[in-house]
């Protein structure tokens, strides 16, 4: 479903746009994803709406078939990229799992702020963004994903998230469609 509306109390959640992740190869050029996520953040701030900047600083302790890079990451790996222009009024969430809601105070924070809808941007489409979207949906938030402000390391996984999963969790739209809706509602 194409994005049709934004609730008056919407929040932007930018997932894992951090130094250690944006250097990885991605399906779409990361510079465009960063520019679109940054433009969304600027627009949400201009409208006085919450901006949540999420980074990942580790991983869940469970066993997996793929090795974790824990303990071998550079010291600035989890630092948010400067292009996001983090502001003092932004909210920062550090997660240790794929989703931004699990084992963090994000749900309580958004509910305290009266937020009823979240708009998502970031990486990876099929991991951090999709898991956060699933959690938000399960918690009762309206969900919108900015399709030109997300990317993945794997083309098939990205395509699956954008075409099959995201439309089941909420609405999708471009950065510009979302900004236009914000501007119309002002």
UniProtKB/TrEMBL annotation:
Membrane-crossing segments per the record: none
GO MF term set: hydrolase activity
SUPFAM superfamilies on file: Isochorismatase-like hydrolases
Residue ranges of domain Isochorismatase-like in the record: 10-176
Keywords: Hydrolase
Pfam families noted in UniProt: Isochorismatase (PF00857)
Species of origin: Methylovirgula ligni
Name of the protein described by the UniProt record: Nicotinamidase-related amidase
């Amino acid at each position: 479903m194409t994005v049709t509306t934004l609730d008056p109390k919407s929040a932007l959640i930018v997932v894992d746009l951090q130094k250690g992740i944006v250097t990885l190869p991605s399906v779409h050029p990361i510079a465009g994803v960063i520019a679109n996520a940054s433009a969304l953040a600027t627009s949400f701030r201009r409208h006085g709406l919450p901006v949540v900047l999420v980074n990942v600083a580790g991983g869940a302790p469970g066993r997996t078939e793929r090795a974790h890079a824990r303990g071998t990451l550079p010291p600035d790996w989890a630092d948010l990229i400067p292009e996001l222009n983090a502001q003092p009024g932004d909210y920062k969430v550090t997660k240790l799992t794929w989703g931004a809601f699990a084992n963090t105070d994000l749900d309580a924070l958004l509910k305290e702020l009266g937020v009823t809808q979240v708009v998502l941007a970031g990486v990876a489409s099929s991991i951090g963004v999709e898991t956060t979207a699933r959690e938000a949906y399960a918690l009762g938030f309206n969900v919108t994903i900015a399709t030109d402000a997300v990317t993945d390391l794997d083309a098939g996984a990205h395509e699956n998230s954008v075409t099959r999963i995201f439309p089941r969790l909420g609405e999708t739209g471009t950065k510009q469609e979302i900004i236009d809706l914000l501007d119309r509602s002002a």
